[in-house]
Structure formats: C-alpha cells, structure tokens
Amino acid sequence: MTTTVRTGRPYPIGPSLDAGGANFALFSAHAEKVELCLFDAQGRREIDRIALPENTGGVWHGYIPEIRSGALYGYRVHGPYAPAEGHRFNPHKLLLDPYARDIVGALRVSAAHLGYRPGSHRGDTNPDRHDNARLMPKCRLVDETFSWGDDRPPHHPWSDMVIYELHGAGYTRLHPEIDGNLRGSLAALRTPTVLDHLRRLGVTAVELLPVHASVDDGYLLDLGLRNYWGYNTIGFFAPDRRLLNKGDEHEFKRMVAAFHAAGIEVILDVVYNHTAEGNHLGPTLSFRGIDNASYYWLNPDDRRYYDDFTGCGNSLCLANPHVLQMVVDSLRYWVTVMHIDGFRFDLATTLGRGANGFDPNCSFLATLMQDPVLATVKLIAEPWDLGLGGYQLGRFPPGWSEWNDRYRDTMRRFWRGDGGIIGEVAARLAGSGDIFGHDGRHSSASINFVTAHDGFVLQDLVSYNGKHNEANGEENRDGADENLSWNCGAEGPTDDSTIIECRNRQRRNFLAALLLSQGVPMLLAGDEVGNSQQGNNNAYCQDNEIGWVDWSGLGVESKDLTDFIGRLVQLRRESGLARGHFVTGAIEHEHGLKDIAWLRPDGEEMAEQDWHFPDARFFATLLTGEKDKEPVIILLNGHHESLDFTMPAVPGVDHWSMVVETSLSSGFGDRRLPVSEVYQVEPRSLILAIGKLSSQDRVP
Predict the structure, then answer these.
(1) Which is catalytic among the residues 128, 341, 382, 630?
(2) Would you call 346 a catalytic residue per the annotation?
(3) List 277, 308, 346, 527, catalytic entry
(4) Residue 481 a catalytic site member
(5) What is the per-residue pLDDT across 320-369, written as a single tens digit (0 to 9) for each?
(6) Which domains does the chain have, with CATH numbers?
(7) Which tens digits make up the pLDDT trace of 98-141?
(8) In the beta sheet, which residues pair with residue 685?
(9) What is the distance between the alpha carbons of residues 538 and 227, in angstroms, rounded to a whole number?
C-alpha cells in the first residue's frame, strides 16, 4: 500500500486530526529517519510504512490525507545504536507515540522488546533485530469532539477543600450496590451510589490514582500479579483502557462531567518523573527508541546508564526543553480537553531537578506558574524522590501545595502514645507554618493526611504493629518497615471486644484530628468503612481483594464512619476551623485574645517549660478571632489514662458545648459545661468544644 504524505507542520507535536486527514509530529533531536507505521483494524498487520518527510528543529512531521479517526499506528525511528554515547535507536522496534490520545491492546511481555541482544549486563551489545510489532499495543487516532454542555469546574477555594484519594477501578470492584457490569471502571464512579456517598462525606475533590496508560512489569506478571496502582506510565495523553468500561473513549469525560455536576473536583495523580521502560536493561517501548539521550537523565560518567532518582530505573529529564514541552502539553491537554481541576505530582522533586539538584526556580516550576491554563488549577507536589537531596518538603514555590508526611508521622506517633512531641503536634494542627509559612504561602500549602494509597490503610494502622506483605512475592521485604502503628493489643483480626472498641476509638481520633487541623485534609477511600488490606502496606501489585475497597462495613454501626466524617467536615466549615491563613498566636483580637493559644490542663496558657515535659501526651488549643464565629477548643489526650481539664473562662463565653467526643461510640457529645468547670478527658480521645456566647455578646 502506498500512502500519500505531505510536508505537514511541526506544531502541535503529536497527532492532529482534521476533516482532511491528520498531521503527525514527533520530537527526536538525534534521529536520522522517522517512519510512521499504519496497521489494520485489529492491529495485527502493518499495512504501510511512511517516512515523515520533514525535520524542523528536531521535530519530524508529515501530513497524511484521508486518514480517519480510529486508525492504528506506531513509529520506527532510525539512528545510531551507541549506548556509550546515550543512543539506543533500533528501527526493528515499534514505538508508541508519546502524544498518543489512545493506546489499544495489551503489551505482551517478550524479549523481542529489548533493543539489545540479551546476554549483556549493560545492554550495550549489538542491537537486537527481532521485530516486536505484533506484541506491542498500538496508538489510535481519536476524534476529541465531545459535548460538555454546561459543565463548569467547581473551583472550590483551598480553605474549603477536603480531598478523597481513590483508585478508579478498585474503589467499586466489590461495591454491592453498583451494577456488576460497571464495577471496576470509571463509569461506575459517576453512578448515584458513589456520588451520594461522596456528598455524605462532604468531600470537595476526588484524587484519582494514575489514569494514564501504563503497562505491567514482567516480573509481576511472572508472579501472577500486576502493577495495579498504575505508577508505570507509558502514555501521558491516553487514559488507561483497563479503567474503561467496554473501551468507551468518552467515558473519562462523562465521569468528570458527573463529578462537576455534583460539585466535586477531579485531581489526577500524575507520574512524569519516570516511564515504564525501566533501566538500561528494560524494554524499548517509546522514549528510549525515539531519543534516549534527550528524554532521560543519563549518568554523566557513563551514558550507558541512567541517573535514577525515582527507584524505577530511569528519570525523565525535564531540563530538556522538548521533554518539558511534552509534560506541559500533557497537563494542558488534561485541563482543556478533559476538564481536570488539578494534579498531584508523584515524586515531584525529580521534576524540579537540574544539573545541580533540585531548584525551586527551575524551568518546570516556573513554566507552570506563568502558564495561563495551568496556573489556574490546583497543583500538589509529593515533595521528595530517592535521589541525593530528594526530600524537599516546604521548598516548592507559592501556588503549590505539598503532601505533608510530617503531619502523617506526627499524628501517628501521638495517637500511638509517644510522649514528648506535643510541640510537633501543635505545629501540625496549626497548619505547619514552621514548614510552609514563608514567601506568602498559606496553610493550604499543607496537604494533611494520616493514610494514603502508599502504606497502611486506617483499619490496619490500628490493627497491626508490623507489615504483612507476603502476598507481594518478596518474602515481606518490600514496603516500609516502620509504620508508626499500634495494634491495640492483638496483631490483626480479633474477637476481643475491648480491642475492637480501642481500634474504633483510634480511627475516630485520627479522623477527627485530621479534619479539625489547619491545612487541607486528605482522606483515603475505604477508611470510612473499615477497609483492610490484611496488613499489606505496599499493595501496589494487588489487583484483588487485598487492594480493592471492602464495602462490607458500609452501614455497619461499629465500622461505618461516613456520617461521623460528614459531620466533622460540616463543623470544620461552620465553626471557622478551615482558615486560609496561618494561625500563629501573634495576632490579637478583641479582649486581647490571640488567634490561637495553647492551654495546660488547668486551662491557663502554656509557658515555655510546659512544651518540654518529656511525658506530655495532652494539650489543648483555643481558636478565636474568626469573624462571626464562636471560639473553639480542641483537646487531645494521647495518654492511656484520663486527665482533668478546666474549661477556660473566655470573654463573652457563657458556657462550652461539647460537640465531638471520640470516646463515645457515636463520636459526638451534647454536654454543656460552664466556664471554669473541671472536665474529665477520657484516655486516648479528642474533644471539640464550642464556646456559646452570652446573649449580650451575640451578633444581632
């Protein structure tokens, strides 16, 4: 078959479909020739191979008339195979377009994907000449036309945000109230069952684990497992078809529209720090064969190898302007075409690396902050990677929020019963101004969490002292060894009612502290219904009952905390607890009251020496000064014994109303306490009390 090809244009990069055909543009600075390969409708037979006729500034391009939506294609790229110089071109390998809007078919693991002849530990022997096309997924041209109707992003202010992290498939796989034909797909997320549950919780945004096209690691497939979480991206513009119901190409957009109609934003967890091609011995699937020396950080002392800041074998080099362009183009695509509201960047330190390590003024971060599209969406960094100087919590620029692992670790230690850390706990409750309070940043810079996809889920945090990852096939060596957890007296499931009640109280403690802290709270899907991963703290490969949300606790009084969370979220907003600025204790309001004060058990303000008591496991915080809001007190007792607390006398307060009491099975109280009354705080419990103003102090 002979296909007509015209010169086309170098921009935009990627496939561009129009009424007459399609333009194809691919960046490769070091290629000698680029061939576009067209396939039959089943993707089994290569029906044409067309050399792109023009190279403009490293972008190869050509226009194919009359080609239509649905056409399947890939690339073959010619150039030097010289690993010592960083080049690994091999035209015998069919390559995926980095800009493909859809990737169809499964990658069939085979040595045919290796660009080198097997047997070299460095992958620098002569190139392998086996053709891998029949084993490769194919890129598919997509008509992006979609009627969004009156879709409007909710644009919730940061001070109102409550984020809910979930896996797009595992969240509904076991849900008994969802049609079995929809379970385990993005289509299930827009059902009334899911949307009503999220509204009951009060969340304002869902944060989806990676949805970009990804592939499974060969070693996992050998174990009968797969890369369930999806942190193994191979296509930054294409939704992973394994998340779609019957391959509906508009399913993702319909899901986003349904969330928006429910007032819920959609944030994507994105992985631009590495790709699925792994280290120098990995397969050649896309970037490695297109232009290895441009796309990846290579070891400056031996360019056969990669600089691996991610622990995944390679690291994308955003210091290269064309690689930076690809990432920014991808982000813009998900915002403008898919209507996404924000991004959480996995191992974001890697994205900010230059020749001298992490740079908060690097091109990537600067580009996003001045981009007219991306500067308007929510940007969240996981502020670390595994490279030298990789931990960068608090160093991202204004406009960014960051996952705050110090919040997680501090709260876990406190509720485990560790002493001598009340100063650290106080700082985390107040929004971590010691970390983020610079350069005009606000408390919303801190994304607070106690559980996330990575690590123990909440039920396991209170049920296991150690990890139990045997199902991962690595003899329990993988995953974090220190989880700062406490099993309440027994390892794993138990029938002991005392231990069960202890665990339920601890769950309420963690959730109440999280939702009453300054900063932005993030919940993990399933924690509200007592979901367990059987002690597995690294369920990335468990696409089964271990990794899926177990909904058996839904509606069960002793397990289901959905309404507890929803009420806490409501209190957070109504009581003025969700403040967009830092509370420091330095700001004084009427009657000389500070915006925040820390109290001893006698109700008096803490002095310097009170912070350093080594066995301290209790403190109270008094928040005042929010306009038209009543003062609130939060009491935290991490000790195994009860403690007496004197309710403070605050100007204008007639009495205190005990609203949250985690020692109660419901989590809520209704007691009224006069000022100066001594109140017994139960062991391992949290209290929220609201100061009720006397009639003469009420606002008319």
Answers:
(1) 382
(2) yes
(3) 346
(4) no
(5) 999 999 999 999 999 999 999 999 999 999 999 998 999 999 999 999 99
(6) 14-140 (2.60.40.10), 590-697 (2.60.40.1180)
(7) 999 999 999 999 999 999 988 766 777 789 999 999 999 999 99
(8) 637
(9) 11
